[in-house]
Amino acid sequence: xxxxxxxxxxxxxxxxxxxxxxxxxxxxxxxxxxxxxxxxxxxxxxxxxxxxxxxxxxxxxxxxxxxxxxxxxxxxxxxxxxxxxxxxxxxxxxxxxxxxxxxxxxxxxxxxxxxxxxxxxxxxxxxxxxxxxxxxxxxxxxxxxxxxxxxxxxxxxxxxxxxxxxxxxxxxxxxxxxxxxxxxxxxxxxxxxxxxxxxxxxxxxxxxxxxxxxxxxxxxxxxxxxxxxxxxxxxxxxxxxxxxxxxxxxxxxxxxxxxxxxxxxxxxxxxxxxxxxxxxxxxxxxxx
Length: 288
Description:
rod-shaped; 13 strands; alpha/beta; 5-stranded mixed sheet; activator
């Protein structure tokens, strides 16, 4: 004798019965629940065996609840409604930690966070960290926005889109008068590089074709202040142009520069429905 036959009723039994009774169709209910019709029929039959009474009349063209089934349906609807209210209350207390190193992409980030919070009731905590990839691997954030190529095999990578690059220099730099620069000119200029989360550095050119003079920094603040101090030029995704990041720098269009990829990274072993919904919302925002 099965657990169900001994009177054990599970949530899946209630959901199955409610869907069939409401839609008056096993076919439509199976589609709604994303299960096969035979599996749905077995689940409803298990419930009827457990209760010892037929709940659905299958003799007519359309499925209908029996008198006992109609009475039971009213209780099931109240139970499922109360359960959904409880789930909503818990979801409103849930949160997901989104890590980033500098300047979240716009308008993607704002649209994604707003849509996700509105549709799920879950709060997104924005966590600024110098090394977003390491923050994911160490469990300090659930998911992170990372620019550039991700070579680590310890994380799962979902590519979102590409950003264009621009050059940035101090307002007093001789290059500030230029209307544009060519990517091929960059190796001949002192280049300020963010070695932790920057998108452009000696690694951006093949072999030894990169810049001869490199000024290394370890985070975005050090990088932008070094550029503003005219220690060298920088190359950054064009999101910076729209964000007015520093009054002492000027942006210069950069011709021929390769695009910069933007990706979400998270631990592949994470079994988190909230994280999965956030990734789906993030990818959906790129298509919107």
